[in-house]
Amino acid sequence: MKRFSLLLLTLCLFQSTYAQTDTLWISGIEVTAKRTPALYSEASRVVSVITKAEIKRAPVQSFADLLEYTMNVDVRQRGYNGVQADISIRGGSFDQTMILINGIPFNDPQTGHHNADLPIDLESIERIEILEGPASRTFGPNAFSGAINIITIPSKLNELKIALSAGENKFYSTAASVNTGNETFSNGLTFSKKGSGGYIENTDYQTLNLFYLSQLMLKSNKLTFQAAYQDKSFGANSFYTPVYPNQFEQTKTRFISANWQSNGLVKSDLSFYWKQHNDRFELFRDNPASWYSGHNYHQTQVYGLEETINFTSGLGKTAFGASYRREQILSNVLGIQMDSPIAVRGEKDAFYKKKDHRDNLSFFIEHSYYTTKWSFSGGLLANYNSAFDWHWIPGIDLSYQLSNNLRLFGSVNKSFRLPTFTDLYYVGPTNIGNSELKPEEAIAYEAGLKFINHEVAAELAIFKRDGENIIDWVRVADSLKWESKNITELSTTGIEVSVLLNAKFFHDRNLPINQLRLSYSYTDISKQSGEYLSKYALDYLKHKLAFSLSHSILKNININWQATYQDRAGSYFHFKNNEETTYAPFVLFDSKINWEIENWNVYLEVVNIFNIDYFDIGNVIMPGRWIRFGLSTNLKFKK
Fold this sequence. Notes:
It is globular and about 70 Å long. The strands form five sheets. It has a 22-stranded antiparallel β-barrel. It has one domain: Maltoporin, Chain A (Beta Barrel). The chain is built from six helices and 37 strands. Strand 4 and strand 5 form a beta hairpin. By secondary structure, the chain is mainly beta. The longest helix has 11 residues, at 2-12.
């Protein structure tokens, strides 16, 4: 392995021909950081964009892996390759980040542990937008500390794509997609299956994804339809407690949405969506203890409808509308006791014995106004929830153009999050839920500078978030039981710096580099929770440094280097050492070599090159060095 690492280092020093540059520079991308979309260069908030070219170059096999390199995004994985990941932004919790697919909310009301159960492969993603900071005014409840929007665009070409990969730990991945289309009607269907035998005992997994996307253009109108399915099963070694390492879990996700957009003087955007998520958790994969009464079963269903009207006048851009969302759960653990149990489909002698539901209705209005120098956006979300009454969420974003390329920006926004059904009802050997919880609320302040030209995109931002009624699992010093309570007040402050240099910057200087991205974030959290000890609130990334470099080394051969430094605050009880242990900082290096020739791409990727031992979550061992290789082809055909 040392010889292989030396070879990679030698190759990276060899400068040769230039790689093809990205056709769209980031400043021209329209992002959805507010109700009235704006160009990236005009946004008055911190928005990170991961383009399709970056996704293709990255040495990753899942959405969660990709976010590891993004500024101030904390990805705490159990296992690897997206088996289960808790995603948070700016020191928030995994329940405080909104995940969206083409603007459709995807969060699961059972628990944020399932928010990354995305039935979409990287090959289907056009780009990813990460809005840092409060986003409830734009995306509704639960976009508390940020939002991540996954954008997919149907291909207008007639093509067949096939991708195969394999590697250590019995890893394999197969994917195939068929696209047919023209300027009027396009369709795309993607199938993939991947898995691994695991890097240690009981870390094996299997994932099956199906994703369909179609788009119909009718003069100035557009109809988009998407449907997806995922079946994922995995060994959950010590995922929720190291006392019983032989845990196992299977989740199934079904997702459908339709969107109708009409253009004109007054534009309309109407969306409908439905999502069902099934979760089976086994504390014992085999040989259960005599006292074990059976597995946990949960089924959540979410229905949603949203209408947005927007128009442009001499006073600027205005958007207003309403949304409705219903969340419901069937479970044998979470909810209110039912009079008549319901059999769990496909399971023998298993019944849902509890249920709950809640309805959410939102009304919103937003207005944006632009002058030569100034940009203003303000809005209000009025939210009614059948379980938690009314909440009013205002916000203002403001920016001033200091020069052609330099912009000063600032914002003040409120946000809130509803408790999950796990927060409200879960009861276990060491956990007690609380059905009297209130929603979390926060006011966030942000200010910074943006510099953007045709070669460079750089940002500097400082932020502060004051939260109240923050939900945390806490305990008193002489108790072993964690309880969910609204007792913690959190004050979060931080600073972020990022620089992105594109291919033109280097090619004008006769360097064979495609892109360089560097970011650093510092976060500090202080809390007031009286006599209680906190389980989650103070486990956050204090320092994160992320680096990526893409360059060519030979004709048609490109290499991508990724590195990340993470220093986490907080501690965990080390099960084997029987002592409280602080998280140790670590540095990870990953790399991927791509050889592209005509319609073929062959690659070799190595993650955790130096075989570093590290933890994202206490007592859950992460994998060491992992080598994978693969190939893909794109075949065009005529109708």
